[in-house]
Each structure stands twice: as C-alpha cells, then as structure tokens.
Specification:
10 helices; SAM-dependent_MTases_sf; Protein-L-isoaspartate O-methyltransferase; binds S-adenosyl-L-homocysteine; 283 residues; S-adenosyl-L-methionine; transferase; EC 2.1.1.77; seven-stranded mixed beta sheet; two-stranded antiparallel ribbon; 9 strands; alpha/beta
Length: 283
C-alpha cells in the first residue's frame, strides 16, 4: 500500500516526519491536497505535539473545541498576544470549514477549487506578525481570502472604524466566505460595510480602499506583485509567502520614507498565487 503523504485532515506522524526532515522528497496525491499551508521549520516539533493534543479534543466541538485549539497554540508559543488569542476564540473556525471536516485540528483543510483553509497555526502566525498593524481603525487587505476566516479576524481586530477587504479570484469561494461571515460574530461589520469580500485578481490588490496598514497574502507568489507594494501604507507591513516549491514566509515593512525592508519568518507551503484557469486546471 502506498505510504501516507502530506497534509489532509488525516496527517500522520510519518507524513510530518517527512515534511520535517526530507522536504525535497515531498510528493502528494490528489489535486486538492497538492499544496499545504504548513509551517515546516520553526514550529514543526511543537506543532506535532500540539496536533496530537488537539486531536484528542475533537469530540469537544463548538466553544470547547476552539478554546482548546487556542490554548494549544498558546502553549506551544504560536500565539503570544491576548488580542490574537481572543480573536481566534471569538471567530469560530468551525463556521468556516466544510461540514464534516476537523475544524480545530492543526491542519489545513481542502475547501474545493484546489484551495485549502490554512492550518490554525498559520492563521495564528500571520495574525501575530500583523498584530501591530491591525489596531482599531486601521486598514487591511487579505489577498486569497478563501473561506474568509482570516479576513474576519482582521475585521474584528480593526473594528467598525477600520476597513478590511478580502479578495479571491474564485467567485464560489467569495460567495461562501460571505455566507460564513454572515453566520459569525463578524456579521455586523460586513453589514455596516467596514468589511467587504470581492472577486478579483488579488495580484492587483484592491486600490479602492488602500493604502493598507496590513496586507496578507494567502497564496505563494513567485515575486511580490508591485500593486501590493504600492498599496502598502508607509509604516505598513505585508506578510507574503514567496517561492514556488520551496517557499519562505516574508515580512515586508515599508518605512515612513517609503523604503522597503524584508525578512524571512519561516519556511512554508502554500497554494500558488496564480490565474484562475491555472488554479482550476490543477496548476
Ligand atoms: N487564506 C484563506 C485561503 C488560503 S488558500 C483561508 O485560510 O481560508 C489560497 C487562496 O488564494 C485560495 O482561495 C485561492 O483561490 C486564492 N488565490 C490564488 N491566486 C489568487 C489570485 N491571483 N487572486 C485572488 N485569489 C487567489
């Protein structure tokens, strides 16, 4: 029988071992699990432990499930701030994953259209990196908004005085993300218009509500799209996975004089930031 490989809600110890020690030999089967949003280097050990801890709590759905998820992310050092912990407890990931999927296990979940909702530790990592730029009243852009989970977290953090825009190029995913948000604690922000989700090519950003204090890109680009750099506010921060097979999560800071500084946070594996046709064709 073929060895279990890669992501999926049923990620195995063996798969994790391969990811940690032999990424070059990564392979996969099935188009929807072709790519994963999994942080390979920094958290891999503690996440392995946290994964099994979280799995034990799967029977506790709803509020106990998400509380346990957040507690584990805190315990293993992925969440370090109260605001990030609070928002991940407030916005129920269970409303954003397909019915029957494991909402609170630390793994990406396929959402159709060759996309996945990122693993909780990746959402937490990105929220931590962007937290200072998600203060009440600030503006944020979420490129590749998928299920809308992270977009909703951004909206709750910047509040009704802020402005959050999610962009995805798959219309069905945008419709689904709107429905997800409508069921969630972020619904009133959507209704009031401080949060909106749009169909579009995220490589062009969303100029209408820019410039943005925070830009998150949820899919891996081969290089940083210039419109996203242009729409980043001086003093703002972008988090973007860069690369094709081997990818780095890059943190891009634009200083007040407009100069750009970048550093690598960690190694990751995301779906590509690409054209709709290429994505639907299975890359
Ligand atoms: N962050 C989201 C989804 C991550 S999957 C979540 O956790 O739910 C990456 C998403 O990027 C997919 O939904 C895919 O459709 C989208 N995407 C890929 N290329 C894109 C592009 N050029 N413009 C807009 N969205 C894109």
């Amino acid at each position: 029988m073929r060895a279990p490989v890669l992501i999926c809600p049923t990620i195995t110890l063996r798969a994790y071992g391969r990811l940690c020690c032999a990424p070059r030999r990564l392979h996969c089967h099935g188009s929807s699990s072709q790519f994963l949003n999994l942080n390979l280097s920094r958290f891999s050990r503690r996440l392995l432990t946290s994964f099994f801890h979280m799995e034990q709590f799967q029977s506790g759905a709803g509020s106990s499930g998400k509380k346990t998820m957040v507690e584990n992310l805190k315990r293993y050092g992925v969440i370090s701030s109260k605001r990030v912990a609070q928002v991940m407890e407030d916005l129920d990931r269970g409303l954003f994953v397909p019915a029957g999927s494991s909402a609170y296990v630390d793994t990406p979940v396929p959402i159709g259209y060759n996309a996945t909702i990122s693993a909780p530790h990746m959402h937490a990592t990105c929220l931590q990196l962007l937290e200072d730029k998600l203060q009440p009243g600030m503006r944020a852009l979420d490129v590749g908004s998928g299920t809308g989970y992270l977009t909703g977290c951004f909206a709750l953090m910047v509040g009704a005085e802020g402005r959050v825009v999610g962009v995805d190029h798959i219309p069905e995913l945008v419709d689904m993300s709107i429905k997800n948000i409508e069921k969630s604690v972020a619904a009133s922000l959507l209704k009031k218009g401080s949060l909106s989700l749009h169909v579009g090519d995220g490589r062009k950003g969303w100029q209408e509500f820019g410039p943005y204090d925070a830009i998150h890109v949820g899919a891996a680009a081969s290089e940083i799209p210039q419109p996203l750099l242009d729409q980043l506010k001086p003093g703002g921060r972008m988090v973007i996975p860069l690369g094709t097979y081997f990818q780095d999560l890059k943190v891009i800071d634009k200083s007040e004089d407009g100069s750009i500084k970048a550093h690598t946070e960690t190694s990751v594996r995301y779906v590509p930031l690409t054209s709709r046709d290429e994505q639907l064709g299975g890359f």
